[in-house]
Every structure is written in C-alpha cells, then in structure tokens.
Design a protein that fits this description.
There is one protein chain. The protein is 38% helix and 15% strand. The protein is an alpha/beta fold. The radius of gyration is 21 Å and the shape is globular. 31% of the residues are buried.
Length: 326
C-alpha cells in the first residue's frame, strides 16, 4: 500500500517553523512522506542552515511557494506580510498540489496547516483531501482565539478585534485573568495592525470548524484549563527539539554558540534563560514587570540560592541580567 503523503505549511515566522519541522520529522519516523512548504525567502534561509540541502532524509522534502511580496520588501512588517499571504498563497498552494499530483507517483493525501494558515484547510476541502490544523504554541493562546465570538458578544472587543474595555477578563473560571489589551492579537499599538492580526484569529477559528483534527504542541499536564475549555483539541506535545535538529533544520539563522563558554563557568541551576519570538515587541514597563516576576519566582522557589541566581532575558540580541541590570 502506498505511504501517506502529507503537505505541511507553517506560518512564516521562526517560532512557527521550528516546531512544525519537528512535527514533520516525527511523521517521517512513522513512514509518512512529508512535503514541507516554506515561503521562498524562508526556504532559502532554512536550506542554507540545513546539512541536507534537498530535505531531511528520504521522506521529508522541502519546497517553497511565493508569499506575494517582492524579494527585497520588508517581511518584518507583519501587516503587509499577512495581507499578502492571504491574497497570494492559497492559489499558489493549489498549483503546487496540482504539480505534485501530476508529476509524482505519491499523490498528496493530507494537508497539515499552521493554525495561522487556516486558508490551507479550505484548499484541502476544495480539492477533496484530508486536513489537520497544527498549533505550535500555547493552547491558552489558541483558547483566546477560539473564544473571539464570545468576547465580541460580551462587548470586550469589537468585530475587528480591538478591545472596548480595560477590565480584567477570564476565558474560564480555571484560567488566569487577563487584560483585553494583552490578548495576543490586541497587544499592538497600531489599530490597523490589530485588525490584520485578528484576521489570523479568524483563520484559526475557521480551521477548528473545517478540519478533522486540531493538534496542539502542548499537553494537559501543562495547560489543563485550556484543554478543558476546548476538549476537541488534541495534544501531541510538547515537541521538543531533539538531536535530529543538530543540523539546524528549520532555523533561519546560524546558532550563536559564543555564550556556551560563559554558561559552562556558572554554577548548576544558577541561570534562568528567557527568549522571545522574532516578532516580539514590548515596552520598558512590560520588560520590568517580567523581570520582577521572575525575580519574585526565584525568591519563592529557591530563596536560599537567590544570591547565586542570575536571570537573563534575551531580546533582540541584547543580554540583560534582570536582577542586577547588567
């Protein structure tokens, strides 16, 4: 019997590509053939850091489709990138599938799409193949996406995702309270940006309704409240980067190992490392609140070792100790 052939397509951001690539490799371990789709720009970045330039073994092949922007356009402009993706990539994905099915004896049998790329689920429905959505980050964030209509009905946000209230809210009694302005799509100062990112929220919610499976890079032991709120979500994680990623598969940039010599000189369990995504933007107040929260956690959990603990936050290549400030 022919082996399954799955197309996997992540949202074109580093924090989405790496866990999705790990998923691809796990599927390949189970003798599933995978075609991994990046945008053209990210494909060049990923393959330049991968030792196997043609793919990841016999069962994982990396290909690309255009995102609709010109080669030199700024892809850190998430608003422009997202609008271009929504306009361009559905048609290009259909063309790729047509080409594969015409030229390859192993026809495409399923699409696994990043929750932010829910339009790919519509493509799967259109051509009559199976589909699954994949959420690469926290299920708590996904739960807020899937709750958008209730937030609109309750007057918390408007139909474009913009907060209308600054009162604390709870998605469920067992989930911690949050300010509407701190919802994942609403934390941008530019309202136009909020509205565009909210389009991705709608993509994720639509994918949850259209697809057969919605798999998540988490587990109930870590996020019991969020999974209880949406029990149809299927935990398959956390998908931790393994030794199979030693060749930097899925990474946009070469790993910087210059800090390892310094880390090797520190006492065991004396450093807490906090990293943020490639699109993360936060102000000094938010940075300080996070720093003090980590410091308080260190105080409560390990008071007797506090003087030996240094908490470092990595943000845009700057390394700061949040206790002493250096």
């Amino acid at each position: 019997m022919a082996i399954p052939h799955v197309l996997i397509i992540p949202y074109p951001a580093q924090g989405h590509v790496i866990p999705t690539m790990e998923l691809a490799q796990r599927l390949a371990m189970h003798r599933v053939r995978v075609t991994f789709i990046n945008t053209e720009v990210n494909h060049k970045l990923v393959t330049s850091n991968c030792l196997d330039k043609d793919g990841l073994g016999d069962l994982v092949q990396m290909v690309s489709i255009p995102d609709g922007l010109e080669p030199l356009e700024d892809r850190s402009d998430v608003r422009k990138l997202t609008l271009s993706i929504l306009q361009t990539m559905p048609r290009k994905l259909e063309e790729l599938i047509e080409t594969i099915n015409k030229e390859d004896s192993s026809k495409v049998t399923c699409i696994i799409a990043d929750g932010f790329m829910g339009w790919a689920i519509r493509v799967a429905k259109k051509i009559g193949i199976s589909s699954a959505a994949f959420w690469p980050s926290s299920v708590a964030t996904l739960a807020s996406f899937l709750s958008f209509q209730k937030l609109i009905d309750d007057g918390i946000i408007n139909k474009n995702g913009i907060p209308l209230s600054d009162e604390m809210i709870q998605l469920s009694e067992t989930m911690p309270p949050i300010k509407p302005q701190n919802l994942a799509w609403a934390c941008f100062e530019d309202s136009a940006m909020v509205e565009v990112i909210f389009k991705l929220v709608l993509q994720a919610e639509e994918a949850s309704r259209l697809t057969e499976w919605f798999i998540c890079n988490s587990c109930p032991e870590l996020e019991a409240a969020a999974f209880s709120l949406y029990p149809q979500l299927l935990p398959i994680g956390p998908l931790l980067a393994s030794n199979r990623l030693a060749d930097q598969a899925g990474h946009f940039w070469q790993e910087d190992s210059t800090c390892l010599a310094w880390l090797d000189q520190q006492p065991v369990s004396s450093v807490i490392y906090v990293a943020f995504g490639s699109f993360t933007i936060f102000n000094q107040t938010q940075f300080d609140e996070l720093a003090h929260g980590l410091e308080m956690h260190c105080t409560m959990v390990c008071l007797k070792f506090l003087r030996n603990v240094r908490v470092w936050i990595l943000c845009f290549s700057d390394l700061h100790c949040v206790i002493c400030g250096f």
